[in-house]
């Protein structure tokens, strides 16, 4: 089993050690963000756009419809949203799984790893409106689910450094009418937008809220998603266990008004950063009224404070990529973990058990 010998370095690297009252970490994929206003409801935003290339070069996350040239042209539209929302901290994510040979070579070969660190630091510095990087190495199989929570790591990590992941999309199924989980159905392959689920539930109602998930069903289709009532269960869990905040995936499926993100923000960070207002909603189109933010939500910048950014309810913690050696050391520590399960915070019950064990050990 591998281990992280200096967890403090990882905490600095990802820079997500924030108070619960402020953290709304918004994941996103490549798109044109020039007109995106929902991102202004996030405290941090993470664009999943980079990966390890051959011999430690920088490569890009591409699709058949989004080639590398398109990714490079759209990337600045994400970083530059910080001009409109100076309190926002945009990050570029390096994504990958242990099955990718360039990633494996980078983690196992010191010279390739050094090449990648130099290339990555230079790349991020060329986008000054993005404040740093986020390392997102994952790829668990279903058979590894039993080990998706490293108890021996968690027992040494403060709950305030953990972020609870929330889905900002829906899953759709072709079914005969259902009212509870466990019914038979055929999944529709694409991820449905959150707005689609809201429109559907406004017509057919919500049949159940269970374990933080909701079902809305007609005679032939069902949506499973985070309704506002369901998300309250998860927010209460995060608050009662003093977690560091929440992360939502993704801005791309959030809808024009990002109704779920807007609701989460109204609950855990209702006051905008000093001197700013949260972006108002456009005309509601998803079947629910929008009341946040209320008009006149500007707060005042404290006297004598200049430069930097502020965040409602949280201490400022910025990641600056001025220490390539730090990143090199962290990636070296990740090398023994290649192929090992990573930490997932998608199972509140498992986390609850671990936190209880930690409490008993401290008594």
From TrEMBL:
One of its GO terms (biological process) is chitin catabolic process. Coiled coil: none annotated. GO terms for cellular component: extracellular region. InterPro entries: GH (IPR017853), Glycosyl_Hydrlase_18 (IPR050314). Keywords: Signal. The keyword Signal applies. One of its GO terms (molecular function) is chitin binding. Residues 1-23 form the signal peptide. The keyword Signal applies. PANTHER family: CHITINASE, CHITINASE 12-RELATED. This is GH18 domain-containing protein. It comes from Anopheles culicifacies.
């Amino acid at each position: 089993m591998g281990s992280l010998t200096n967890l403090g370095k990882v905490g600095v690297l990802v820079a997500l050690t924030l108070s619960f009252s402020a953290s709304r970490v918004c994941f996103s994929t490549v798109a044109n963000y020039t007109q995106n206003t929902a991102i202004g409801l996030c405290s941090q935003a993470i664009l999943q756009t980079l990966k390890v290339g051959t011999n430690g070069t920088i490569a890009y996350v591409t699709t058949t419809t989004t080639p590398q040239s398109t990714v490079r042209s759209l990337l600045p539209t994400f970083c530059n949203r910080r001009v409109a929302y100076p309190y926002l901290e945009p990050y570029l994510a390096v994504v990958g799984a242990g099955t990718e040979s360039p990633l494996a070579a980078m983690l196992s070969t010191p010279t390739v790893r050094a090449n990648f660190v130099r290339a990555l630091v230079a790349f991020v510095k060329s986008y000054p409106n993005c404040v740093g990087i986020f390392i997102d190495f994952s790829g668990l199989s279903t058979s590894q689910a039993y080990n998706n929570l490293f108890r021996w790591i968690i027992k040494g990590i403060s709950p305030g450094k953990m972020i609870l992941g929330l889905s900002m999309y829906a899953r759709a199924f072709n079914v005969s009418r259902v009212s509870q989980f466990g019914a038979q159905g055929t999944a529709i392959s694409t991820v449905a937008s959150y707005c689609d689920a809201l429109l559907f539930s406004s017509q057919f109602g919500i049949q159940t809220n269970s374990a933080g998930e909701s079902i809305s069903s007609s005679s032939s289709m069902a949506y499973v998603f985070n309704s506002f009532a369901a998300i309250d269960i998860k927010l209460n869990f995060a608050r009662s266990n003093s977690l560091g905040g929440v992360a939502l995936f993704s801005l791309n499926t959030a809808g024009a008004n990002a109704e779920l993100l807007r609701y989460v923000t109204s609950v855990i960070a209702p006051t905008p950063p000093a001197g700013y207002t949260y972006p108002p909603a456009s005309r509601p189109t998803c079947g629910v009224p929008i009341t946040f933010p209320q008009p006149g939500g500007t707060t005042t910048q404290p006297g004598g404070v200049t430069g930097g950014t502020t965040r409602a309810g949280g201490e400022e913690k910025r990641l600056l990529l001025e220490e390539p050696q730090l990143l090199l050391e962290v990636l070296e520590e990740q090398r023994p973990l290649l192929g090992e399960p990573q930490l997932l915070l998608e199972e509140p019950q498992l986390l609850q058990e671990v936190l209880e064990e930690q409490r008993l050990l401290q008594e």
